[in-house]
Specification:
single chain; alpha/beta; 10 strands
């Protein structure tokens, strides 16, 4: 799989990235460790050498699963993890990084990201300068190789950039959720900051497997996803019907088509999670789907059936409902 340079760093990442939120099990159902490990490993074997995790995914459990899957090929991988919003004071960042290093069984993290801006989820407000000072210190020590942010707005990203080199932004971004295009994306393009899109399949909606009568199991966080609200879900189904003929034309799945469209966007890479080997290898094949400029524009228009009817809320989940 052809690699791309991460921002202004010297790191090379794959355009499809293995996502491991599900590996932490918390807020997911039906996850089996053995299948997850196989899934991560098969992603690597299919050419996906970049893996994204976070300390908050199962309180370090996801990081430990990543280590279990990839420790013997660590030097061939790019590890990206994140520090959560409640650990953004200087000493907390250092401690969190050391915990992640231990969980990942490594002495360096390739990309270390601020998971959510200070103040998110009722966390204490910490000046971004303090957090960036800690990250810059870790970088000088060689414990991290690049700094990224996640869920930051354009103004928050610009402020963080005043205190150090930011090489990536991780926003929710898919054909059905495109808020970043009108906010932080122009800044990223101007400053050569890579976009690492999470939920690139809109949490499974872009696979086409969800029907109108779907009921989520107790504890499945997708029940809080704005796109699953009845008024939005109706538009999702209409868009899916229009995408199917394009996928058929390319002899690919809807998921592969959606990933191919996303990684064709400027500076954009996609984090695709997988529960098992089959899902991992199918995700990797998205790089083989070659879309013409006309098809990219056609798919863009289809996506707007959904996105033009969403409200202004930048967060995909309503965890308070």
């Amino acid at each position: 799989m052809e690699k791309r340079t991460l921002g202004n760093s010297n790191l090379e990442i794959t355009p499809i990235i293995m996502g491991t939120w599900q590996a932490g099990k918390k807020m997911w159902v039906g996850i089996e460790d053995t299948e997850t490990v196989k899934g991560i490993r098969s992603a690597f074997e299919a050419g996906i050498t970049t893996v994204d995790t976070a300390e908050v995914y199962g309180d370090g459990y996801s990081e430990r699963i990543v280590a279990q899957a990839l420790s013997d090929v660590r030097s061939e991988c790019i590890y990206a993890t994140k520090v959560f919003a409640n650990h953004l004071k200087y000493d907390q960042v250092i401690e969190a990084c050391n915990r992640s290093l231990k969980n990942l069984q490594t002495d360096y993290i390739d990309l270390y990201q601020i998971h959510w801006p200070s103040g998110s989820f009722k966390s204490e407000i910490v000046p971004i300068e303090e957090t960036m000072n800690a990250l810059n210190h870790l970088k000088k020590q060689g414990k991290i190789r690049a700094i990224g942010v996640s869920n930051f707005s354009r103004s928050q990203l610009a402020e963080a950039c005043q205190y150090g080199q930011i090489d990536s932004l991780q926003p929710p971004y898919s054909l059905f959720w495109r808020k970043v295009e009108n906010d932080a994306m122009p800044y990223c393009l101007e400053n050569n900051i890579s976009i690492i899109a999470y939920s690139p399949l809109a949490q499974g909606l872009l696979t086409g497997k969800f029907k109108g009568d779907h009921k989520f199991a107790e504890g499945d966080h997708r029940s809080k996803n704005e796109l699953f609200k009845p008024e939005n879900f109706k538009n999702v189904q209409a868009a899916i019907e229009k995408l199917i003929p394009i996928a058929t034309r390319h002899n690919c799945t809807l998921a592969q088509l959606s990933l191919a469209w996303l990684i064709a966007q400027p500076m954009t890479n996609a984090i695709a999670g997988a529960r098992n080997e089959k899902q991992s290898t199918n995700n990797a094949k998205a790089v083989e789907v070659n879309l013409s400029p006309a098809e990219i524009e056609e798919i863009d228009g289809i996506g707007r059936i959904v996105t033009d009817n969403l409200d202004d809320n930048p967060v995909m989940w309503n965890f308070n409902s």
